[in-house]
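Box 3.1 — From sequence to structure: Periplasmic binding protein
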Amino acid sequence: MKTLLTLTATLALTATAGATSYPLTLTDDLGRKVTLKAEPKRIVSVLPSTTETLCALGLCDRLVGVDDYSDFPQQVTKLPKVGGLYNPNIEAMVALKPDLVIVSKYGKLVEPLTQAGVTVLAINPETYDEVFSKTLTLGRVVNREAQAKQLVLNMRRDIARVEILTRNAVRKPTTYLEIDPTPYSVGPNSFMGVLLTKAGARNIIPASMGDFPKVDPEFIVKANPQLMLGLDAKAAAGRPGWNTIQAVKAGRVLEIPKELDTILSRPGPRLPQALRGLARLVHPELFK
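Predicted structure (token representation):
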């Protein structure tokens, strides 16, 4: 409790800020210098996490288009869709006459949009700390610095509340979290990996493998996790050698509910909800 109160008090002192001055020049996640001549009023978001962050800052009404996967909050589902990361509709984006398009650092959107005269900013949080720092960057870009600082404060506070529950858990199971059946997993320094640790689990994936590594199935067999998340129990048992894994034998192979899986994959303002849902899977006894 003392930690939570200290965190709240410290961040509250920084929850005020002046207005952003334009023109504003900043370096995006592709290392490009991007200049915004004025406060953006017509924004296209090509990342669900960015869409959610902008709406959390009170700027849903400035969105004129979103990617195919942006579905939260409900009101963005009525906006024009502009494709996804690998199937973007450049013409649709340009037709919306945006003064800013916010994209991932992956994909090939920057060059064609820039050639069309559109201002493009690549913001792509991947680590836990970047979720907060990029939220503050977005706040600065859209002249909502104070709101962004308050949002970060609220997120950290809600995360701390879950940590209070999980920190003293009697057992912290060794855990394998699968995000794709290839199989891909999460390293401890990725935003999902940090959430897994905060949920009271011990990740079997070492930092040396990277943030979102493709994993040799034999490595998982040798690691012999006590808990497996993100895959079907029957499918897991059917993989070569996996029927010997502790989690499979003990019936501790758990699918992640669809809504939680969606939230968990988005490094945005619903990070606390993702953590709480993950903690419920790892330590259901703490939430009875």
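Summary of the box: DSSP finds twelve helices and eleven strands in the chain.
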